[in-house]
Histone-lysine N-methyltransferase set-6
Amino acid sequence: MPPPTSDLFAVQEINHAGRGVVASDSIHPDTVVYQSTPPAAHVVFRQYRQEVCADCFFYDRGQPCHEQWRAKQGAVGLEAWTKLHDFIQSKSKSITNNHSLPSLTPKPDEDEVRRTWEAAGQTAMSLRQSRASTAESETILRRTAANSAWPQVVDPDILSYLLSGCLYHNKEVASYMADVAELEMDTMPYRSTPDLQAHSNSYIQLTACAPGELLSSVTESVCQTLISAASHNSFGIHAGSTDGDEYLGYGLYPGASYFNHSCRPNIRKQRVGAGWEFRASKGITPGEQCCITYLGGDEEVCTVTERRSRLKVHWGFTCACKQCVEEAG
Ligand SMILES: C[S@@+](CC[C@H](N)C(=O)[O-])C[C@H]1O[C@@H](n2cnc3c(N)ncnc32)[C@H](O)[C@@H]1O
């Protein structure tokens, strides 16, 4: 799925904002402009997994879509999730919850990121070699766990996000290349040194516990792309249909990722099941950019300085929307 196209819009280059969605026709208020497919990669955080449907993300629904979910995973997917589950259970004393931890250390620099991934790549390579020489992955896991080089900290949420993306790559490599790999990447996506380590450790751990058939998709390149793409493109999965409700996880929706931010948005997004619906919140004229808000409604009460500062801190860009340009002068 390359950038989406429609009779209503085209994806085009926008001044100071990369690519964006531009109306090619008049769009009336409340028109559905775009409906996304389910995410290419996602995670429902571990503490919500019992209450949130893995297939449609409905909160408090238990497991009614379980059979649909199983059918979509296929044999390799089911084996991979079972192995990951067993691995996490066996490491229950080492579990951390990275997404809710405050960043107490500064962002790592390029050199630290490069060195950390190089070391992870070497560990993963020796794991692959051991796996090729013995079919007993349990033996390998025990042996590597006993080795001090084995990363002890386990982050189930990062592991789940990466595994879902590796499974997508394995099942639909052409789509992965056309959609996930084409997204805007954040080359420095790590909030802190522990965050960097949690991600590179997860890659090593997946290399150790994924089924053999999946190993061609559990690569450094696939994992790094999934991590870099999530930073600038993922959408929060909330308990209700909008951003205000409880934060349950996040997902990468490549087709939906071309909507830029505006502090005066003309599109509102709403989660419908596992996908998103984008509707015009006002009339849009041909040539006008279709934008959502990344500030969840706070753009209505914040000053231009506050808005720009929040977007810079959380998203890493200086807002170039019409409203900010007009207000900032
Ligand atoms: C979800 S992506 C949107 C699509 C992106 N423009 C692209 O080319 O793939 C978010 C990124 O778009 C850019 N962006 C979105 N809204 C913007 C704005 N109002 N001003 C400047 N850059 C913006 C930023 O680089 C941001 O990290």
Observations:
- The pocket of S-adenosylmethionine is lined by residues 16-20, 183-184, 232-233, 257-258, 260-262, 315, 317, 319-321 (CB under 6 Å).
- The two ends are 38 Å apart (CA to CA).
- The longest helix spans residues 66-90.
- The chain has two domains: 9-37+253-328, 43-49+65-233.
